[in-house]
Description:
Layout: E1 3-7, E2 28-32, H1 40-47, E3 52-55, H2 64-68, E4 75-78, H3 88-93, E5 97-99, H4 106-120, H5 123-132, E6 148-152, H6 156-167, E7 171-175, H7 181-187, E8 190-191, H8 195-201, E9 204-207, H9 221-224, E10 232-235, H10 244-253, E11 258-261, E12 281-283, H11 292-310
Parallel strand pairs: 1-2, 1-3, 3-4, 4-5, 6-7, 6-9, 7-8, 9-10, 10-11, 11-12
Amino acid sequence: MPLRCAVLDDFQQVATELADWSPVAADVEVVSFDAHFTDEDALAAALAEFDIVVTLRERVSFPASLFARLPRLRLLIASGMRNSVIDYAAAREHGVTVCGTASSSTPPVELTWALLLGLARGLVTENGALRSGGPWQSTVGADLHGSRLGLLGLGRIGGQVARVGLAFGMEVSAWSQNLTAERAQEVGVERAASKEELLARSDFVSVHLALGDRTRGLLGAPELALLKPTAYLVNTSRSALVDQEALLAALHAGRIAGAAVDVFDIEPLPAGHPMRTAPRLLATPHLGYVSRANYRTYYGQAVENIRAFLAGSPVRLLP
């Protein structure tokens, strides 16, 4: 009897199309789920008969309580090589091997610029008006050339975002608690003296930090108040980096020109969530990592992980 593998959150139903699962077809039955399980009870019931689970990013938590309810589970594969919502100690306690995959930084960089440009040129407003017979031109775009881009974080993704900003002719500065002058010089950007200075001087602010104890709630009401009323904020990293209530308040009050977000405190976003109707907000359903090339990597390496696990030599072990 073959092992059973569940692929979670396969919203587009492409997991078996974008990778070749034939190397494990004789040993593994693959079942993909295109609907998100909103609570642990539903998830535990759905996964009770599966030996292997493939999960995308950090959308689905695997706490100790869930591992205890999945006695058949033996292999958990997460996309990416870092996952903060898996209880690794509990996985080991229950005999579950946890593996990851590679993940490209290119798709989130590209989405960051899609969002930033969409904000700057009012693309959603203008497209909606054109399609509905509304006014011909109702916004005046913000220029990128000569404006200041402030980056919170200058790692893999932040560094690539910075280089695109420089190509647009923007003045680019960056800040993080660990940013060195050498790293800023390497990328060719200015190192801001403080977070507060960066926020106060920037026309566009984009967040590219890992979520941790030091960065959770990094941008709250006091920090958002430092932004110019003409400034735009983009967050494609983690929602908890920005105080969501403070951001909503700033948008409703018109204290900033606008914001673009790809990450939320609850995903998928409930129908009545205030982020769905907030003014001055360009929002996308966590598309940062969603690209054909990235999915080919995720699911292709998931197959490799399964083969290695079945051979007794698991690879890409987490943490």
